[in-house]
């Protein structure tokens, strides 16, 4: 039956309301754009402030990043040349600098390994917070610190004193006495002879070589600053062990890099200054103390120990699952 009324049509209840999914997508796009704007703004704000630290570090690193072959040749040549000078020329002492009781000898050289360990540990610990895999890098740093410290104690506190005591002779006039160095020299008129391997030549050379290897982290620091706030790419041709950073890690590093970069730079500069001081003290040791054979053996042991540890032991250890990445 036709009543003349139009048939009833069901209309959508939610007509005119924007669907949730497109709205959510627009919010994500806006958030991403906001983050990119923040990153670009951070680059603009940061671009002027770190240049002082990065330029200073980039200039000072050249002393520690001399090719190892040149550094080894330098130590061997210095030992040979300065020992020859000492043999033919009786050089006068400047007690405040070259004397046994000088501050440089009693305060710095006597505690050279402790000072070196503290300085490069401060540098590496501040640098660790710029690494995305903090736990792995921390374990490897602790292993390196422990092994190098054991090497120092093995040679300087164990082997060298034993060789000195085994080869010693105490002469009193025409008599030869079987006395220790301390007892032999406790009375005047006695002479103590032995093959006293130069602990200073070993220790100072070893300290500089260790700092040279540990300082390589500064290359990652310089690259990271350019990649986070500059034009550097993710292609790290200098060192393939540097981590690949995703956007989440990069966002966190952009926050921490401006805060940590002064600490990293300052500790690195202290390490450079310490390496210069040790090189200077090596020259004094070579010019004023020990025979050529004693200095040559000490230097050779330092070079071999460093090569065995950093070129053989550590690469093998860090490939193990418990210590590797």
Could you please describe the fold and organization of this structure?
Helices cover 69% and strands 3% of the residues. By secondary structure, it is mostly helical. A hairpin with a 2-residue loop joins strand 1 (169-172) and strand 2. The chain is elongated and about 80 Å long.
Number of helical stretches of at least 4 residues:
12
Query: Helical content, roughly?
Result: 55-70%
Strand content: under 5%
- What shape does the CA trace take? elongated
Number of strands: 3
Averaged pLDDT = 81
Largest sheet: 3 strands, antiparallel
Measured between the Cα atoms of the first and last residue, the distance is: 84 Å
Strand/helix succession: HHHHHHHEEHEHHHH
> Can you tell me the residue ranges where pLDDT is under 50 for at least 5 consecutive residues?
12-18, 26-50
Protein topology:
Elements: H1 20-46, H2 51-64, H3 68-88, H4 95-98, H5 103-108, H6 112-128, H7 134-166, E1 169-172, E2 175-177, H8 181-184, E3 190-193, H9 199-214, H10 217-229, H11 247-288, H12 292-317
Antiparallel strand pairs: 1-2, 1-3
């Amino acid at each position: 039956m036709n009543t003349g009324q139009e048939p009833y049509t069901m209309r959508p209840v939610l007509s005119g309301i924007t669907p949730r999914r497109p709205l959510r997508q627009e919010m994500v796009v806006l958030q991403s754009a906001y983050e990119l704007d923040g990153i670009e703004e951070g680059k603009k704000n940061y671009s002027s402030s770190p240049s002082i630290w990065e330029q200073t570090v980039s200039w000072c690193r050249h002393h520690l990043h001399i090719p190892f072959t040149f550094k080894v040749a330098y130590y061997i040549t210095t030992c040979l040349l300065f020992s020859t000078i000492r043999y033919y020329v009786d050089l006068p002492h400047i007690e405040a600098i070259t004397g046994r009781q000088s501050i440089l000898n009693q305060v710095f050289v006597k505690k050279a390994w402790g000072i070196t360990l503290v300085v490069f540990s401060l540098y590496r610990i501040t640098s660790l917070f710029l690494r995305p895999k903090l736990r792995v890098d921390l374990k490897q740093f602790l292993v390196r610190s422990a092994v190098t410290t054991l090497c120092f104690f093995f040679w300087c506190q164990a082997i060298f004193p034993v060789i000195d005591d085994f080869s010693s002779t105490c002469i009193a006039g025409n008599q030869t006495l079987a006395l220790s160095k301390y007892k032999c020299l406790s009375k005047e008129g006695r002479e103590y002879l032995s093959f006293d391997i130069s602990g200073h030549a070993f220790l100072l050379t070893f300290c500089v070589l260790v700092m040279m290897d540990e300082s390589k982290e500064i290359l990652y620091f310089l690259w990271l600053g350019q990649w986070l706030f500059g034009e550097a790419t993710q292609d790290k041709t200098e060192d393939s062990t540097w981590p690949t950073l995703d956007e989440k890690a990069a966002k966190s590093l952009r926050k921490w890099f401006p805060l940590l970069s002064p600490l990293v730079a300052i500790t690195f500069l202290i390490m450079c200054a310490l390496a210069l001081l040790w090189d200077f003290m090596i020259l004094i040791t070579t010019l004023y103390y020990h025979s050529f054979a004693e200095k040559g053996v000490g230097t050779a042991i330092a070079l071999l120990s460093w090569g065995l540890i950093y070129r053989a032991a550590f690469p093998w250890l860090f490939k193990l699952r418990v210590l590797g990445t």
